[in-house]
Amino acid sequence: MAEYNTEMNKLSYEIFSILENKFLFGYNEDPKQQKKANHKAVNRGKVRILSIDGAGATDGILAGKSLALLEFFLSKKSGNPNARISDYFDVVAGSGAGGILAGLLFTRGKDGNPMFTAKQALEFMIENRPGIFRQSSGGILRRVLRSGKVEKLFRKTFGECTLKDTVKPVLITCYDLATCAPFLLSRADAMEVDGYDFKMRDVCLATAANPTVTGAVEMESVDRRTKIVAIDGGIAMNNPTAAAITHVLNNKLEFPFCNGVEDLVVVSLGNGESDYGVGSKRSPLPSQSLRIAGQGASDMVDQAVSMAFAQSGTNYYVRIQVNGIIAKSEQGKLEKAMKAKKKEEILCAIEEMYSKNTYESILFQGKRMVESTNLEKLELFAGELFKEQERRKTSILPTVVLKHSFPTPRTSSATTLSTLSSPC
């Protein structure tokens, strides 16, 4: 039996490697050809992807702070006090709390600009996270009342805006109980088929729907042709980075010159570790177990993506995540402040976490400490994002061509997943 398990582990590793190298990331076995491809990619520009995790003990506050810092650095480097996150990214993908942040930062307001700045989005998450995410005692009636309050909050925030009303391509995940499959809510699909266009308030409800807090969310497209029963996007895809990369590589209409990871700049934001303490002797609650599973899946995606970038010879991928035992004391302070609902203490605790050295994940080998802090990483990549923005001002060929409505549908990567998981 031991020998059999060893062989199965070896086979699983080989299958994972093949999928990663040949299918997910387009790895070329010939190093000479890969080198030529990288050389040709230099002048094509780079598509900038922002990915925001779902599960985590901070319920979006950690990722929200990352975004606020990143927007500050972008404003500083550009000299524009009104710089927005959406100005410097071509695609955003979010799951759970990350999906809500994506909606806040990329949905177009009445003035044509995104509804929220990153700082305002952070304040929104701090103020409203208890009502959206936290489980409370009580029965079905209390859960129904809470669900109504959350729905009212998102209705007030987004009004009648739909996926079509986002300033850039958006990908937000949820899980459809009706078909027992992941469902990817995509602006690209919404622009092609009304059956895939959903109101942003429903999108945020779906991606954040915790069965133990608000219950599942029954939602339908604007033309009422597509109906799903949605719960937490973190169950389906807690770290949506790989989904975002796959979408960009397959969406030749909006990203015509993007052929591999060498043509990408990716910023992936985590939301902290599970709130199940290290060394605890008690059994984790179901919600804590879900977060632990989501965290593990997120680490695997992070490791695979970082390997793909290393294989292509580029370093345009950064993962911002506070993890490791070294961060437990700071995370404890943050959780204590969150329970007390003290905004200033929450922000102070997060600042401490960003000043510490960070960890990076190594596939099948755990984590290792690196010298740079998350603050330093964010400032460095703000520079890369700004460079790409400046390069496009003098470029003849467009790196990104935003999609408009089409009379006939086209099968995109997002449409393929949606078609498999929901009837029209």
Describe this structure in words.
- The chain has 15 helices and 10 strands.
- The protein has helices at residues 2-24, 31-41, 61-78, 97-106, 118-133, 140-158, 187-192, 200-207, 233-237, 241-250, 286-312, 328-340, 343-354, 374-392, 413-421; strands at residues 47-52, 91-95, 170-176, 181-186, 217-220, 227-231, 264-269, 317-320, 357-362, 366-373.
- The termini are far apart.
- α3 runs antiparallel to α5 (118-133), α6 crosses α8 (200-207) and α12 packs antiparallel against α13 (343-354).
- Strands 1, 2, 3, 4, 5, 6, 7 and 8 form an 8-stranded mixed β-sheet that branches. It has a two-stranded antiparallel ribbon with strand order 9-10.
- By secondary structure, the chain is of the alpha/beta class.
Largest sheet: 8 strands, mixed
The termini sit apart by 47 Å
Structural class: alpha/beta
Overall, the morphology is: globular
The low-confidence parts are 35-42, 276-281, 406-424
> What does the average pLDDT come to?
78
Using the CA coordinates, give the radius of gyration.
21 Å
Helix-strand sequence: HHEHEHHHEEHHEEHHEHEHHEEHH
Q: Percent of residues in helical segments?
A: 40-55%
Strand content: 5-15%
* Helix count from the secondary structure assignment: 15
* Strand runs, count: 10
